[in-house]
Amino acid sequence: MGGKKIKPPGNLSFDPENNFFTWDALEGATSYQLGYAKHGKKNYSEAYQGEDTKAVFAPGQGDWDFVVRARNMHGFGKWGDVLEVVAEPTI
């Protein structure tokens, strides 16, 4: 018996001043996962997993793609839209 996967959270955003990511909460979500990879790649590493709709993560210098997905009782849903983050070197 198959269950209904949860849709991706929307409105993933990044505050570069504080390395702070946020996204929309979803009804029925038990947790979220924030993933990242070099720009244009799809092999996402985990930056955050937990119940919050926010996370602090410093990607390091470079051009990165971030995605978020939700989990419910049936498992993880699909990744949401890609948010490109360009992290400049600090002086």
Give the structure's gist in a few sentences:
The protein has one domain (13-87): Immunoglobulin-like (Sandwich), CATH 2.60.40. Helix content is 0%, strand content 45%.
Short key terms for the protein model shown above:
0% helix; elongated; mainly beta; 91 residues; five-stranded antiparallel β-sheet; single chain; Immunoglobulin-like
Outline the secondary-structure elements.
Layout: E1 13-15, E2 20-22, E3 31-38, E4 45-50, E5 54-56, E6 62-72, E7 75-76, E8 83-87
Antiparallel strand pairs: 1-2, 2-5, 3-4, 3-6, 6-7, 6-8
What does this 3D model show about the protein?
- The structure is a single chain.
- The chain starts with 12 loop residues before the first strand and ends with a strand.
- Strands 3, 4, 6, 7 and 8 form a five-stranded antiparallel beta sheet that branches.
- Helices cover 0% and strands 45% of the residues.
- The chain is an all-beta fold and 91 residues long.
- The protein contains no helices and eight strands.
Mean pLDDT: 93
Number of strands: 8
What is the number of domains?
A: 1
What's the helix count? 0
Report how far the terminal alpha carbons are from each other.
Answer: 56 Å
CATH class: Mainly Beta
CATH H-level name... which superfamily? Immunoglobulins
Major sheet characteristics:
5 strands, antiparallel
Poorly predicted ranges (pLDDT <50, ≥5 residues)? none
Helix fraction by DSSP (H/I, runs of at least 4) = under 10%
